[in-house]
């Protein structure tokens, strides 16, 4: 199967569900350069819109990249290590590939700017958020994610010890 993928021109796969991910993987150097271009202090926290992007970028950048959007059942793994509350006031650089401009992030930061990048068939946004605001993030992203994803898969007996809950400081009785 891999041989077939490699032997065909990339355009063969255009319109397929995996096409964006394939292009993103092949153009990771462009994305990495664009992410680094948005770093000002070197202290920014990196984010992405989904777990696969976070994992790929984390490897390429040599930094942790956290899922900042709602994600999915499988896309909240970074909640086990993220310290959202401790990042109050910090600046973020976020890769956003899916959908329109990441305007939904505006309440999460004191200031938000973003720019669209295009490299051949790949287009994406990179947002620069200044002054992260934990409470809106907790209320708009973490609480629904924890309630929708973790609560349905973590048994009641383990619910109180769920690390994402401790990190997010969310009432376990959601």
Report on this model:
The chain is an alpha/beta fold and 174 residues long. The protein is built from seven helices and five strands. The longest helix is centred in the C-terminal third of the chain and has 20 residues, at 134-153. The model has no long low-confidence stretch (mean pLDDT 81).
What is this structure's SSE topology?
Blueprint: H1 2-7, H2 19-26, H3 28-37, E1 45-48, H4 51-61, E2 65-67, E3 92-96, E4 109-119, E5 122-132, H5 134-153, H6 156-159, H7 163-168
Parallel strand pairs: 1-2, 1-3
Antiparallel strand pairs: 3-5, 4-5
Question: Short description, anyone?
Answer:
By secondary structure, this protein is α/β, with parallel strands linked by helices. It contains seven helices and five strands, in the order αααβαββββααα.
Question: What is the spatial order of strands in the main beta sheet?
Answer: 2-1-3-5-4
Low-confidence stretches: none
Largest sheet: 5 strands, mixed
Query: Which value, in Å, is the CA radius of gyration?
Result: 17 Å
Order of helices and strands: HHHEHEEEEHHH
For the secondary structure, the number of strands is 5
Task: Return the average pLDDT rounded to an integer.
Answer: 81
User: What proportion strand?
Assistant: 15-25%
């Amino acid at each position: 199967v891999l041989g077939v993928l490699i032997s065909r021109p990339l355009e063969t796969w255009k319109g397929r569900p995996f096409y964006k991910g394939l292009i993103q993987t092949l153009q990771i150097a462009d994305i990495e350069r664009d992410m680094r271009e948005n770093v000002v202090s070197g202290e920014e926290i990196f984010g992405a819109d989904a777990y696969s992007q976070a994992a790929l970028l984390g490897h390429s950048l040599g930094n942790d990249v956290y899922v900042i959007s709602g994600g999915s059942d499988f896309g909240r793994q970074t909640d086990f290590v993220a310290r959202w509350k401790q990042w109050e006031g910090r600046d973020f650089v976020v890769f956003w590939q899916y959908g329109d401009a990441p305007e939904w992030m505006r309440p999460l930061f004191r200031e938000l700017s973003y720019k669209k990048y295009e490299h051949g068939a790949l287009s994406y946004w990179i947002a620069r958020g200044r002054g992260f605001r934990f409470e809106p993030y907790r209320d708009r992203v973490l609480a629904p994610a924890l309630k929708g994803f973790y609560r349905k898969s973590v048994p009641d007996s383990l619910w109180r010890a769920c690390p994402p809950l401790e990190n997010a400081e969310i009432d376990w009785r959601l």
